[in-house]
Amino acid sequence: MAQTRLLIAEDESIIRMSLRESLEGMGYLVVGEAGDGMSAINLARQLRPDLVLMDIRLPQTDGISAAATLFQECIAPVILLTAYSNRDLIQQAREAGVVGYLVKPVREGELVPAIEVARARWAEALVQRKELATLRDQLETRKVIERAKGYLMDSQGLKEAEAFRKMQQLAMNSRRSMREVAQAILLTQQLSA
Fold first, then answer.
1. Rg (Cα) of the chain, in Å, rounded?
2. Beta strands 5-9 and 51-55, pairing class
């Protein structure tokens, strides 16, 4: 099994070094370190770690904003490590897509479960995102096909089954998908209007 690849974003070098030693001692591979939020984002984009451990208070871009960027771009899950535990920050972290929140000082015994649970939740979220994208695509395809079928029914006096069959034939003969054929029919409709 491949080692879990981590990125650490912490502005205090002593804490960063201590965290790195602890993580490597637990069998994790630290592939990068950053001292500010922008560097963390850029390193994560470049290195594609399995997880990012990030402080909230970072120069340039704070940890919550950086986490939101990494979440939106589907780059890596983020666990925030912070000395702050007020409800506003926790709410902001939730809204940013953070998958874990640990209050410093973090004990080594808390890191492994937090990392492993965060990775599992991230994997589940990626599957859900993919399924959602597939469903949206299928729905959009169905809408386009229905509109094109309606146009054929109106313009050529066809029944619904005949219009659908005509589109199927066009798709097979042109080696195109039903969606592509439907889009071409709708484009023709726009041009003739």
1. 25
2. parallel
Distance CA 193, CA 186 (A): 11
* Percent of the chain at pLDDT exceeding 90: 89
Nearest-angstrom CA–CA distance, 54 and 101: 10
Nearby residues of 51 by Cβ (< 8 Å), 6 or more positions away: 4, 5, 6, 7, 76, 77, 78, 79, 115, 118, 119, 122
Report how far residue 10's alpha carbon sits from residue 43's, in angstroms, rounded to the nearest whole number: 13
pLDDT at 84 over 90: no
Distance CA 61, CA 54 (A): 11
pLDDT at 1: 53
pTM: 0.75
Domains located in the chain, CATH noted: 5-106 (3.40.50.2300), 132-192 (1.10.10.10)
pLDDT computed for residue 108 by the predictor: 85
